Automatic annotation (TrEMBL):
<dbReference type="Pfam" id="PF02518">
    <property type="entry name" value="HATPase_c"/>
</dbReference>
<keyword id="KW-0418">Kinase</keyword>
<keyword id="KW-0067">ATP-binding</keyword>
<keyword id="KW-0902">Two-component regulatory system</keyword>
<feature type="transmembrane region" description="Helical">
    <location>
        <begin position="109"/>
        <end position="128"/>
    </location>
</feature>
<dbReference type="InterPro" id="IPR036890">
    <property type="entry name" value="HATPase_C_sf"/>
</dbReference>
<dbReference type="GO" id="GO:0005524">
    <property type="term" value="F:ATP binding"/>
</dbReference>
<dbReference type="GO" id="GO:0046983">
    <property type="term" value="F:protein dimerization activity"/>
</dbReference>
<keyword id="KW-0472">Membrane</keyword>
<keyword id="KW-0812">Transmembrane</keyword>
<protein>
    <recommendedName>
        <fullName>histidine kinase</fullName>
        <ecNumber>2.7.13.3</ecNumber>
    </recommendedName>
</protein>
<keyword id="KW-1133">Transmembrane helix</keyword>
<dbReference type="GO" id="GO:0016020">
    <property type="term" value="C:membrane"/>
</dbReference>
<keyword id="KW-0808">Transferase</keyword>
<keyword id="KW-0597">Phosphoprotein</keyword>
<dbReference type="InterPro" id="IPR011712">
    <property type="entry name" value="Sig_transdc_His_kin_sub3_dim/P"/>
</dbReference>
<feature type="domain" description="Histidine kinase/HSP90-like ATPase">
    <location>
        <begin position="293"/>
        <end position="383"/>
    </location>
</feature>
Length: 383
């Protein structure tokens, strides 16, 4: 009975908040009438985009309210209202999201009256279910109907507020344009870094190596001992140049990924991180590999997250979980440190997001002050 009462109370709160949003919508009718009059007279046409922005805010509040009840986020797909007044008006009129919000608001003037049904159900439920469930121990009959009312209201709102396929396609194109531009910028920065590393590292050592070999060749007939010393120095230079080249190659695509696979490479990362890292792989058999680009992205994300944990968290322990899903590869890195991760502070999270977004993946970072810090990454791929 207590669980039933808690569920009915939570549903009642949702229905009351829905009624509050509906009441605000009723008041908003005045704004809509003023905007319509101004648009028809052309003089007040500038009010149209501003009114559309207000409607978007109201619809956004309703989306969040519905998502808090259902546990499923309702996406938004709006075209930004920017530029001069004429462009803003044209965008507001042509945006499919405007029609979606208008349709929802028109319907929302009617179905929030479901809230009124909650009042007699509470009165009847406390009596009927108090006897039927509280005294006789039978399943409640009336109070669950309040939860059902909240479910119906949320289902109607979700259906009405869900963006049209055209709007979702436009949002998808915009997202892909942004992520591809970021990927191109990141690729250019990576090429410049490789060029700089080669110029300042391996190339300089190879030039020094060539000079020492030339000196040894000229000194070989007159002073064999000096020539041997120069050749020994040249050998050291060659080994240092090879080390520099391995470092550059490792930054492009770690050879350990090819040799050991993702799980083995992550275990090697964990061993070298300076932390006690628990690595778990769920549903990742050795004979099945993700695409090379996905493995590389996961590897660098984990490397960055463990580096951040070692530098900033103050924790000595971390956890890495690799999970194979039906649609891709999921990565979770968790540390029990102080939390408070800030993307603007140069912690590498922005680069991590760009690397993952280039593969159409997502990154979620939860880092409340006091910890823990959890980085969840989803990388879509075909197994």
């Amino acid at each position: 009975m207590r669980a039933t009462l808690r569920q009915a109370a939570r549903a009642s709160v949702h229905l009351l908040l829905t009624a509050a949003v509906a009441f605000g919508s009723y008041i908003f009718v005045t704004v809509l009438l003023i905007t319509a009059t101004g648009a028809l007279s052309v003089v007040g046409i500038w009010l149209l985009p501003e009114t559309v922005l207000l409607v978007r805010r109201i619809a956004g509040a309703k989306r969040r309210l519905t998502a808090s009840w259902t546990g499923r986020e309702i996406p938004e797909a709006y075209t930004p209202l920017t530029g001069p007044v004429r462009q803003r008006v044209r965008t507001a009129v042509r945006d499919p999201g405007t029609l979606t919000d208008a349709r929802w608001m028109a319907a929302h003037y009617a179905y929030p009256w479901l809230t009124v049904l909650m009042l007699p159900l509470w009165a009847l439920g406390l009596v009927v279910d108090g006897v039927w469930s509280g005294l006789l121990g039978r399943p409640a009959l009336v109070l669950p109907l309040i939860v059902r009312l909240a479910d119906v209201e949320a289902a109607w709102s979700a259906a009405l507020l869900r963006p049209s396929p055209k709007a979702m396609l436009a949002r998808r194109v915009e997202h892909l344009t942004t992520t591809r531009a970021d990927a191109v910028a990141a690729h250019g920065a990576e090429l410049r870094r490789i060029e700089r590393d080669l110029h300042d590292g391996a190339q300089a050592r190879l030039v020094a190596l060539s000079m020492r070999i030339g000196l040894a060749q000229r000194a070989y007939g007159a002073d064999p001992d000096a020539a041997r010393r120069l050749l020994a120095d040249a050998q050291d230079q060659a080994e240092e140049a090879l080390t520099e080249l391995r470092h550059v190659v490792r930054a492009i695509h770690p050879p350990i990924l090819t040799d050991r696979g993702l799980v083995g490479a992550v275990r090697a990362l964990a061993a070298a991180s300076g932390l006690r890292v628990d690595v778990r792989a769920d549903g990742l058999p050795e004979e099945v590999r993700a695409p090379a680009a996905v493995e590389a992205a996961a590897y660098f994300v984990i490397a960055e997250a463990l580096t951040n944990a070692a530098k900033y968290s103050g924790s000595e322990q971390a956890e890495v979980v690799l999970t194979r899903s039906r649609t891709g590869l999921n990565v979770r890195v968790r540390d029990e440190g102080c939390g408070g991760a800030d993307e603007s502070a140069g912690s590498g999270l922005l680069g991590m997001r760009r690397r993952v977004a280039a593969l159409d993946g997502t990154v979620r970072v939860a880092s409340p002050v006091g910890g823990p810090t959890v980085v969840d990454v989803e990388l879509p791929c075909v197994w």
